[in-house]
Structures are given as C-alpha cells and as structure tokens.
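Async update (no meeting this week)

Hi team, since we skipped the sync, here's where things stand on the single-chain job. The sequence we agreed to prioritize is pasted below, unchanged from the tracker. I ran it this morning and attached the output directly underneath so nobody has to dig for it. Comments welcome in thread, and please keep replies under the output.
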Amino acid sequence: MVASRQQKITILDLRKKKERGEVITALTAYDYPFAKLFDRAGIDILLVGDSLGMVVHGLPNTLAVTVDDMIYHSRAVARAAQHAHVTVDMPFMSYQVDVAQAVENAGRLVKEGGAESVKLEGGRTIIDAVRRIVAIGIPVIGHLGLTPQSIHAMGGYRIQGTELHAQQQLKADAKLLEDAGASAIVLEGMPAILAQEIAKTVAIPTIGIGAGAGCDGQVLVGYDLLGIDLSFSPKFLRRYAELESTITAATKRFIDDVKQRRFPTGSESF
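Output:
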C-alpha cells in the first residue's frame, strides 16, 4: 500500500497513534533514493541516524560524526519525505557542552537540514537541553538504554538495564524526558520487560530497537532491514531482503558482460 501524498505525519500524529493503540514504524535513512522508497511504502518515521558514520562512512562508531554531516544527509532525506516524519540525531558533542550550544545545533538541523524533530541520547544529564530546545519550538525525541554515543563508558555495545538500580534509573529518566517536553523516546538494547514497563509508564510513544515487542513502535536501520551487509547480524534483527548477494551478483554479471563484450551490444549510444 502506497502512503497518501496528502498526509504528512507530525509529532502530534505519533502521540495520537499511541493513544489509539496503533503501532508506529520507523527506519533510518541517509539518502534521497532509499528515503523516497521507504516513504512511498508508508513508513511513519524516517530517522537520519548518526549511525550513518558506520553504515555510510565506514567509521568504527558514531563519535566522529559532525553536525555538518547530519545536515548534509538530512537535506537529502527531507526532500524525499512526502509522508513520513523526519527526525535527525544530534551527534556527539553537539549538545553536551551547554544548553546554548544544544539550541544552536538543533536549530541548524531544522533550518539547514529540514529536520522536523531532533533526537538526543541520555536522560537526566541532558534534561536542561531538552527543555530549552522544546521551548523554542523544536520537538525532541529522547533515547535511553544502549546509547551508542556512550560506547566507551558502556564498554561496548552491551544490553542496558539488567540490574535493579539501572532499571530504576532508566524508568526515572523516561519520566524526566516526558516532563521536559520530549515527544517520544527510543528505547534501545534493554530487557523486553523493562521497555514494556516504560512504555506503559509514559504517555509519549516509545520506539524500540532490540528492546522487545512491548514498545509503541519499532525502528531498524534501513540497510540492515535490506541485508546490505550480511555480516552484521544482531539477535534482534530481522532481514526482509538480502541485497548484498543481489548487488554483488549483478555487479559480477556486469563485469563479465563488459569483459566478454556482451555489453554494450551493437552501436548504441546517446
């Protein structure tokens, strides 16, 4: 089913979906072609994630991604999004120094990048930034649990919230984000029962990734869903295609046809 071109999903629509018990769908997108395809299919949210540092730029983690990087990719995705809500990650050190810096960078992502909301990682330590960004009219999506920008502090990509104290802190942080005006929260890499409890505790939507089925929606990296890199296979991932094999095979056929002079055929030209 192709999404209606008349309806652009807003942050308020996402809240209404939770209230009605409708599940929210989200995918990361980093460029115009894939964003256009995901949007046409009817995805609710296109997330321009700082995961682009790893998925697109080939970096070992997300930490080197800049605000300019995010603006460049966000512009392309925003041009394609006729239906989906576009949210953009604020990269590492773009909001942690002080509130003024956070507000300025959030404003750039909206003004220059076409973002309709921004996403920040963390709980109580970023509440002042969340509150101020919301106050100037920019919707904020939070991100709790496994927060990739804190990879060094966490000792790697490890599941979070396995101990009682950590569970209590994550629940408290979710409420703090809601009270600060956040419009939704991504819950990543935590026990399913904990994510479900948080989803029931807050009135704003929760979007899960590696956090079980109890969230109000689910997000995947678009390239992972499509199987662009079959070597990456976390337990929570479900692939809906294996394009790595398709693309590799197509490229090999092209190489062979050119070498064997089967392409181009005849004297075709512009």
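Quick observations from my side:
The first helix runs from residue 11 to 20.
The first strand starts at residue 24 and ends at 28.
Reply here if anything looks off.
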